[in-house]
């Protein structure tokens, strides 16, 4: 799911009244409410920040093409550029989540005060970290004893299971009822 979609969901969750969340769309003309299911797949991909992962993958490929030693660091190497790119993309994930959430909250409820989407920001940054560190060109390869063929799948699987579970526990995985209007 993109950060923009995550921000819209966050705005719906954070700007709802005590009677329950309702979002309006113009997709259908009958005005009947319809439920958006919270399936296992949607829970799994909800917090994956596709925008920053795409940028990070492009950056990692460019670093590897420009300097294969830095892009594919081995034990004891110092992949400063790879770590810098990872940290910048991680911070960009947080900034985009906050900024797009602000815009979505202002669109959903312009007069309500802005509520920081702490849960969504932390989960999106965690999902980026899991995916970014699971890539073949991970900066973790510079650590002695790290075998990306063994640890990347473990990191990806555990993160893909843990992040949706945490989201469900803290209530960030709620389903929304959307009402179509003319």
Contiguous uncertain segments of 5+ residues = 17-30, 174-182
Strand arrangement in the largest pleated sheet: 1-3-2
The count of strands amounts to 3
**SSE order, as H and E?**
HEEHHHHHHE
Rounded to the nearest angstrom, the distance between the terminal CA atoms is 27 Å
Structural class assignment: mainly alpha
Estimated helix fraction: 55-70%
Describe the SSE topology.
Elements: H1 3-14, E1 22-25, E2 33-35, H2 40-45, H3 50-66, H4 68-71, H5 80-108, H6 118-134, H7 148-170, E3 177-180
Parallel strand pairs: 1-3
Antiparallel strand pairs: 2-3
Helix pairs in contact: 1-5, 3-5, 5-6, 6-7
What does this structure look like?
The protein is mainly alpha-helical. It has one domain (3-180). It is 59% helix and 6% strand. It contains seven helices and three strands; from the N terminus they run H-E-E-H-H-H-H-H-H-E. The protein has helices at 3-14, 40-45, 50-66, 68-71, 80-108, 118-134, 148-170, and strands at 22-25, 33-35, 177-180. A three-stranded mixed beta sheet has the order 1-3-2, with no helix packed on it. Helix 1 (3-14) crosses helix 5, helix 3 (50-66) runs antiparallel to helix 5 (80-108) and helix 5 runs antiparallel to helix 6. The longest helix has 29 residues, at 80-108. It is globular. The protein starts with a helix and ends with a strand. 31% of the residues are buried. Residues 17-30 and 174-182 have low confidence and may be disordered.
């Amino acid at each position: 799911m993109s950060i923009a979609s995550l921000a819209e969901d966050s705005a719906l969750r954070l700007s709802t009244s005590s009677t329950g969340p309702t979002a309006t769309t113009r997709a259908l003309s009958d005005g009947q409410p319809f439920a958006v299911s919270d399936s296992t797949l949607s829970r799994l991909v909800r917090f994956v920040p596709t925008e920053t992962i795409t940028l990070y993958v492009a950056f990692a490929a460019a670093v590897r093409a420009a300097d294969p030693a830095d892009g594919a660091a081995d034990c004891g190497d110092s992949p400063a550029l790879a770590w810098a790119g990872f940290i910048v993309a991680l911070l960009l994930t947080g900034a985009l989540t906050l900024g797009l959430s602000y815009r979505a909250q202002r669109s959903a409820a312009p007069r309500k005060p802005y509520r920081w989407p702490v849960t969504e920001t932390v989960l999106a940054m965690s999902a980026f970290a899991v995916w970014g560190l699971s890539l073949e060109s991970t900066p973790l390869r510079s650590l002695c004893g790290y075998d990306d063929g063994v640890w990347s799948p473990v990191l990806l699987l555990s993160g893909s299971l843990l992040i949706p579970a945490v989201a469900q526990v803290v209530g960030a995985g709620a389903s929304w009822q959307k009402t179509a209007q003319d």
